[in-house]
Amino acid sequence: xxxxxxxxxxxxxxxxxxxxxxxxxxxxxxxxxxxxxxxxxxxxxxxxxxxxxxxxxxxxxxxxxxxxxxxxxxxxxxxxxxxxxxxxxxxxxxxxxxxxxxxxxxxxxxxxxxxxxxxxxxxxxxxxxxxxxxxxxxxxxxxxxxxxxxxxxxxxxxxxxxxxxxxxxxxxxxxxxxxxxxxxxxxxxxxxxxxxxxxxxxxxxxxxxxxxxxxxxxxxxxxxxxxxxxxxxxxxxxxxxxxxxxxxxxxxxxxxxxxxxxxx
Length: 264
Hints:
By secondary structure, the protein is of the alpha+beta class.
């Protein structure tokens, strides 16, 4: 075989080899491009997903959390009354009785004994919440005071709870503020008095505003139930918001009459 014949023979083989190299290189580059493209798309998707989540979280974090409170007509009235006197904290009512008054809270427990809700001098005074009640906690017991007079004003009808039949007809007390319109179920009715400091082991219900412990709360409930003039099935458990109505009573010197209820 001469040289020319060898060259002619090798040319096809060389072309085949070059073609194979080209094909292999092409496939490699294509695969590499595909892999790079896949990685790029994954990166973009992850970045978009991350940005989307961050944007969503930002949007969510910017949405104000609003508690929807259904405002009743009574709540609106209390709000309007507060414009006239900011000391008005609520409205108290016992249905089908004369007890249907605004409740005030002053900086002391004397002013509203001799002034009405318009801050005018009045022998009847007002129904008022003890100054010690802290709305920011809130305290455990809404201790509310009022005079009672023979003219039927203020808390005069509260004394009718002496009779269980009256309790049976009026077991619910309604107390409305600008934030809620709540009902309270009576759990105890009792007579008491203002005790001397020297007297020990007595139930000073008028000192109980906020429970410092579950034990203190339960002790108040136990003493209230024990002092009750008659058995009432309803009771309260630790954490229940309480309401106590207190007025003067003339069964003894410095006598007091109290009705305790818990929020439903």
